[in-house]
Design brief:
By secondary structure, chain A is mainly alpha-helical. Helices cover 64% and strands 5% of the residues of chain A. Chain C has 24 helices and 12 strands. The chains are: A mainly alpha (348), B mainly alpha (272), C alpha/beta (577).
Chain lengths: 348, 272, 577
């Protein structure tokens, strides 16, 4: 039987403390160092192993890079190389690739000084904020409500996973057909209530449509992630909480949320990025209309690429990439701070 | 006292059921619309009135080499992508999980950066690069490009699963004389099979529906489903055919969901 | 037409299945007998001779697989599904003719231009890009090609003079850059039956003081639109609300060509000249005598934001708001197309003849029982600023384009296919199916004389001298894809009311000039690239124009609504004979 004993004092079973891993290291948490104790009865030889460090010794680090090589080389080929090319393009005025004209940072200056850019940025941020504030809580809520075991839960997950499989260029078509009046069911339903749903000219309606469409499309992802992490909570925890007389809210805060925190972060990051950079769905609904009400960042980019303006498109891409990196960086910093706080509190 | 609590319980269950029912409606209604449209002839045709029930759309799909071939193309490239991604991500995830090395902290940021790159940014350079190495119009090309955002996710998920397996298992194996590859295949892989399943699901999902790269890399051949659907939009879009094609494209997705359902339902933990 | 297509496809499939392995005369004879079946301007012997040329010329390329691409109109569908397999069977060159969206063709072409990678071996590309092709020199010019590398694969029976659209595809250097494959025009569409109804005629005359007929100017069009919108037409059995105009206004790429397809010159913006206004064309771009673009805004001598342009946009928006079905403002080109055929629209100013085939389908509310249409097409009315000698409307000329980045042998094989689908053997049948015309001999054939009364005036138009006043975008436009993009975005702002037409056009011309300036600065087009004018005010340029015998840019007219003029359709047709 192998047990970890954490020198932060607690003793946990194997499924509860998995040792330091990427996240701990990344977020600079002083991980619980586990002390390995073995009570192996099979082997009677002198192979007693005492490891003072939970990590392999440093002489093995080079082989780590060998293991990473395949992944990194694929990413280098299809990711880094094109990115560098883009970076290069952003300093030229490009008509054909042979005839480039150096203009330095002119594109950057032009984009960053245009009010249109900041308006699109603001719109994208607002849109993402709305999406996150709806989808994350809603996804968690649904995941909590679903029966944890048995066929029903599985059936629900399968059903919620279905919108994830729809080709992205068809999602807007489906919704537009659905809301079309008189042909679509949704349209007819709304008309019964006298609602004139006009997503072509009414900015509010267009936003509502986009939010609804995006939620419909992606809520399954959040639910699947949350549900899966909830399923790993052993019933024993619930029983312990019940014995302690915890309220539903407390159970959620202290038993369920900690388990879900990592997947929630993943969902948050993925959903934020995808909603921030939404293109296909928004374009097909109303091409950024009405009157620019749904012109998000990526729409400008898409238009430049369609016009074969590679110079400005490249500059714009680099700027977006920087924005996105900055946000990822701030995620990390916030998580770090929170982690230090909670760990500090726990250690006291 | 008992009555009151069971009554409030009853109300609660009713409320929950109603809510879940609304969720089902919200999710399934557009699909219902899609199914109805796919069985409708939405353009005027000889012999079939517009708006009439008909299986003409599905017959058209079978008759069109572009459309039926696109299904095969999609399956090929997605399978290739899933295989490449998992093959490549497994060692990487292992390395990140087990080793501490210079720069390991920054690997995470790097991976995230790739996942969140907007695809439309990379289209032209990727096209030129792939054209030079002859990967245009080939499913392998799309499979490789999709790795940009699938590998980070795969590593993220697999790393968590691998971390769930105690290091001690590794050490015992090595002490027992296993080499790393042998240990990996014989002992570790069965333990993280669920994780591989989940990773395959996510990779499949992100890759199957991707539009931007699929478009730029398949010009005259190898068109996947998303691109075949794209060609249907035009002068007079036959919405019924578009919906029928979408319906057909959901079938492999459904199959994957069905096969993976246990792994997802059973639960997996992304470590933090 | 669909039935026809199905039948011919079946024939082609059969032929393919039975005789595909090698090129031979037997396959050719089968094709001629079953597909062409005598529907050609050539005699049987001449047809066979032409087929022989193709078989012999294709021998070095036997077994080669080539790919060509075009947009998805009916004519191209016929080519792709019937003619390409036939060509493959006859010559042994396997042709895949892809059909994709209009915008996508340009995109692929651009990608090939930009990257130098051979994507398609041949493109059917709108001749709107003639200015682009001529200046970037990425396209093989066919004059030199036919005399040089393409000599052995050029059909002696090609008869370039027989093509009616070569003036569109010839650059100022006198060389042919593209070979037309299909053409259709943008005309005025109206309900002939409603215009001939006695009650309508008398009511109209009473209200407006002149006869109801084909409008000659925009004032008349507006009066007619006003007359019909909301009118009670139950005496003719029409149910539902009637509209006097149809258009589309969704902010979508299709909104761009709604305006660049000569709307401005129909209003009278730009200069006189055929096929396009010189020195200022319908995009408002001015060129100097070396054909170098010199400006787009009024302050550089262009006309994109002059009074005539503002008038053009203002009128279009007014008519869309006041006289069109309410959904029209949110429709794209593709969605708006079928609406007139549904029977509640009296007239449409901007109607592509490519819709003819779809609007003559039997059983439609706009068709008579004997197969003749209730509607007609006629020359488009012109605006208050228009003067004789100016371009009247738009003609689309999808034309074969061979890129320099395509290897010579592949280009030669593609050239053979291009000539096959435009050959005199095939052309009559092809036009019969798709109702697009490229050859004089086809237009004048007996077959179409017989068919004319079922086509709503299409044949009469193409036989008339008027047709030369309809043309595609010309050589003043140095980079079509980059400039076209600007139109839908800026005009879209005017459509939505976000900007006034003047503001939207000011913004558009500024954007266009930015592109011209970039081209000038980069020097990418060499001697043919833009050389920007200095800025002066409107009065200066207007005077400059008068001194040099042109008219643009225009000063605002005091009266933008002169008296309406109409002409009876029947008289119009007779005047052409």
């Amino acid at each position: 039987m192998r047990m970890h004993r954490l020198d932060c004092g607690a003793t946990l079973g194997p499924e509860q403390c998995f040792g330091p891993n990427l996240f701990h290291r990344y977020f600079q948490v002083p991980a619980c160092r586990s002390v390995f104790q073995t009570q192996s009865t099979e082997k009677t030889s002198e192979k007693t192993v005492t490891l003072s460090s939970p990590y392999r010794s440093e002489i093995q680090t080079s082989s780590a890079w060998w293991l990473l090589l395949p992944a990194l080389s694929v990413l280098a080929f299809v990711g880094v190389l094109p990115l560098l090319t883009i970076f290069n393009y952003s300093f030229f005025d490009i008509f054909t690739l042979e005839s480039r004209f150096w203009i330095g940072t002119e594109w950057y200056r032009e984009i960053l000084s245009s009010s249109r850019f900041f308006e699109s940025l603001a719109r994208s941020l607002v849109f993402s904020a709305i999406i996150l504030s709806i989808q994350i809580p809603l996804g968690v809520f649904i995941a909590l409500l679903l029966p944890r075991d048995g066929k029903t839960g599985m059936a629900f997950l399968m059903m919620l996973a279905l919108p994830l499989m729809v080709p992205w260029n068809t999602v807007p078509s489906m919704w537009v057909s659905f809301l079309g009046n008189p042909a679509g069911f949704g349209g007819r339903f709304l008309a019964m209530f006298g609602v004139d749903f006009d997503y072509k000219f009414n900015a509010l309606h267009t936003w509502i449509l986009l939010v609804a469409m995006d939620t419909w499309h992606w809520i399954g992802l959040v639910v699947i992630l949350c549900y899966s992490s909830l399923s790993t909570i052993p019933p024993a925890h619930y029983q312990a909480a019940a014995i302690d007389g915890a309220s539903r809210l407390q159970v959620f805060r202290f038993v369920e949320l900690p388990k879900m925190s990592a997947v929630l972060m993943m969902a948050l990051l993925l959903r934020f990025m995808d909603s921030f950079m939404i293109y296909t769905e928004a374009f097909r609904v109303n091409a950024g209309g009405p009157k620019d009400a749904t012109t998000f960042l990526s729409l400008d980019l898409g238009e430049e690429i369609a016009a074969f303006n590679y110079g400005p498109a490249a500059a714009r891409s680099i700027i977006y990439f920087m924005i996105v990196l900055a946000i990822a960086w701030s995620f990390r910093t916030i998580m770090n701070i929170r982690r230090d706080q909670t760990l500090g509190a726990r250690q006291r | 006292m008992m009555r009151a609590s069971s009554k409030s319980n009853g109300l609660k269950t009713a409320a929950v059921t109603l809510f879940l029912f609304m969720v089902v409606c919200f999710t399934m209604l557009p699909f219902f619309q899609m199914v109805v449209l796919s069985f409708t002839s939405t353009l005027p045709r000889d012999g079939i009135a517009q708006g009439q029930f008909s299986t003409i759309n599905f017959r058209n799909i079978l008759a069109s080499p572009l459309l039926s071939g696109s299904i095969v193309n999609s399956i090929v490239y997605v399978t290739l992508n899933v295989v490449i991604t998992i093959l490549v991500a497994l060692p990487a995830a292992y390395a990140i999980s087990r080793y501490r090395f210079a720069g390991d902290r920054h690997v995470f940021l790097l991976l995230i950066a790739f996942r969140i790159t907007p695809p439309v940014v990379l289209t032209l350079p990727v096209f030129i690069l792939f054209a030079k190495v002859g990967l245009v119009n080939s499913p392998l090309g799309i499979a490789l490009v999709h790795c940009v955002f699938n590998i980070p996710i795969a590593i993220w998920i697999l790393e968590s699963f691998i971390s769930a397996v105690p290091k001690e298992l590794d050490e015992t194996a090595f002490l027992d004389g296993y080499s790393l590859p042998r240990y990996f295949v014989k002992q570790l892989l069965p333990l993280i099979a669920s994780g591989v399943g989940v990773t395959a699901f996510f990779c499949f999902m992100f890759s199957w529906v991707e539009v931007v790269f699929a478009r730029i890399l398949t010009v005259t051949g190898g068109k996947p489903i998303t691109m075949a659907i794209n060609t249907l939009y035009g002068f007079r879009t036959d919405i019924g055919l578009v919906m029928a094609m979408t319906l057909v494209s959901l079938i492999p997705g459904l199959a994957v969901i069905y096969f993976i359902r246990n792994h997802i339902a059973k639960g997996f933990v992304v470590r933090s | 037409m669909r039935y026809l297509l199905l039948n011919t496809t079946a024939c082609a499939a059969l032929m393919l299945a039975t005789g595909y392995a090698h090129a031979d005369m037997a396959a050719a004879e089968k094709f001629l007998a079953e597909e062409i079946a005598g529907l050609s301007v050539l005699s049987e012997a001449e047809q066979k001779a032409e087929m022989e040329f193709f078989i012999n010329a294709a021998k070095p390329f036997e077994g080669m697989e080539i790919k060509v691409v075009s947009e998805t109109i009916g004519t191209h569908e016929y080519e792709s599904k019937v003619l390409a397999p036939a060509f493959s069977a006859i010559t042994g060159i396997k042709v895949t003719h892809d059909l994709i969206g209009e915008g996508d063709v340009v995109e692929k072409l651009q990608t090939q231009m930009q990257s130098g990678e051979n994507i398609y071996d041949g493109y059917v590309n709108d001749s709107d890009l003639i200015g682009t092709h001529w200046r970037y020199q990425q396209v093989r010019n066919l004059t030199d090609w036919m005399a040089g590398e393409g000599k052995d694969v050029t059909n002696p029976g090609l008869d370039v003079a027989d093509f009616i659209g070569t003036s569109f595809t010839t650059a100022p250097d006198g060389k042919l850059y593209q070979l037309p494959d299909q053409q259709f025009a943008n005309l005025y569409w109206f309900r002939y039956d409603w215009f001939n109804d006695e009650k309508n005629k008398s009511d109209f005359k009473a209200k407006y003081g002149y006869d109801l007929g084909v409008p000659v100017n925009w004032s008349a069009y507006e009066d007619i639109a006003q007359f019909f919108t909301g009118r009670d037409m139950s005496h003719l059995g029409v149910e539902g609300k009637v509209y006097g105009n149809m258009d589309y206004g969704k902010k979508d790429p299709s909104l761009g060509w709604r305006y660049t397809d000569a709307w401005m010159s129909m209003a009278g913006m730009g200069d006189k000249g055929e096929p396009n206004g010189l020195p200022v064309d319908e995009w408002g771009i001015r060129v100097n005598d070396k054909s170098q673009p010199t400006g787009s805004c009024v302050d550089r001598g262009g006309a994109t934001n002059d009074a005539a342009a503002v008038y053009a946009v203002t009128k279009a928006i007014d008519w869309l708001k006041s006289y069109s079905p309410p959904e029209a403002a949110g429709m794209t080109f593709g969605e708006a197309g079928p609406i007139p055929a549904q029977g509640n629209v009296a007239q449409q100013m901007f109607w592509y003849t490519a819709f003819t085939a779809a609007t003559v389908e039997p059983g439609l509310p706009v068709m008579n029982e004997d197969g003749t249409p209730k509607w007609r097409m006629a020359p488009s009315p012109h605006g208050a600023y228009w003067e004789e000698g100016m371009k009247v409307g738009y003609q689309d000329a999808g034309s074969w384009t061979l890129m320099k980045s395509t290897p010579v042998d592949r280009a030669q094989a593609a050239w053979l296919y291009a000539q096959f689908v435009t050959s005199k053997t095939v052309d009559l049948k092809k036009s019969d199916v798709g109702l697009t015309f490229i050859r004089e001999s086809t237009i004048n054939s007996q077959h179409f004389t017989d068919r004319a009364n079922k086509l709503g005036g299409l044949i009469e138009f193409y036989r008339s001298p008027a047709r030369v006043q309809w043309s595609p975008t010309g050589t003043n436009v140095p980079d079509y894809p980059k400039l076209a993009q600007l139109w839908w975005q800026n005009i879209g702002d005017a459509m939505s009311g976000e900007k006034t037409p003047q503001e939207a056009l000011d913004s558009l011309c500024a954007d266009q000039e930015k592109v011209l300036e970039r081209l000038e600065r980069a020097g990418v087009q060499g001697e043919l690239g833009p050389v920007m004018n200095e800025k002066h005010d409107l009065a200066y340029w207007n005077n400059y124009a008068k001194e040099h015998g042109s008219v643009a840019p225009r000063i605002k007219l005091a009266n933008e609504k002169p008296a309406g003029e109409t002409v009876s359709y029947d008289e119009l047709i007779n005047s052409w004979k």
